[in-house]
Amino acid sequence: MKKIVSFLLAACVLLAVNSCEILSGGESGDTKGAVDLGLSVKWATCNLGASSPEQSGNFYAWGETTPKTKFTWENYKWTKEEKSSYGDVILLRSKYNSSSNQGTVDNKTKLDPEDDAARAKLGGKWRMPTRAEFQELIDKCTWTLTSQSGVDGFEVKSKVNENSIFLPLTGFYSQTDGYDGSTLHHKDQGNLWVSDMDNTYTVTCYFKKGKPGSWFGTSREYGMAIRPVSD
Known about the structure:
The longest helix has 22 residues, at 2-23. By secondary structure, the protein is α+β, with helices and mostly antiparallel strands. The chain is globular. It starts with a helix and ends with a strand. The protein has a 4-stranded antiparallel β-sheet with strand order 1-2-12-5. It has a 3-stranded antiparallel β-sheet with strand order 6-7-8. The chain has one domain. The protein is 16% helix and 29% strand. It contains 3 helices and 12 strands. A hairpin with a 2-residue loop joins strand 6 (141-148) and strand 7 (151-158).
């Protein structure tokens, strides 16, 4: 009997690992790593690029599909350099912009599928969540601060069917507060990208100890983690 129980436990662990492996580069479009929380979309077991739920996974700038370890305006994909009337170089936006003094105006406020890291890496029905879908996760789930394998984060349990996912506190990369864009900081909080913009700012679902599930306007060149969803 003990051997049977041990085998079942091992199988469950293996299944959890395999689900995350699919999200980190397995068969394109496979949805075995999707958790049904009884909401409008299914949520991935792990962050994009992670091999277990407590890992942060890879970090991306908004609208980029390749992870990196330094995040600046200078190396942001949708930045273009132009010379001002004074002869100095200025950085402007070449896509996802609604202000004529900040670059090319296209009035795009939602990522094109080809600029969605989750869709680009996983294919199929995987993609980054919208703000509305994250708000549904906030409103229809109970967020409980906990730890998993020594990593702090939130158990997010559905009020609909009691299934749950774990969202680790990830930190982020930026050039703010004296950082150079290559140092992971604010590790006491989590920030996960959404696929739509709020005016000129991109948006992240923000959560930390004592403050689960809220919103934070973020500069798009920051390096943040991504939790995919599947339709």
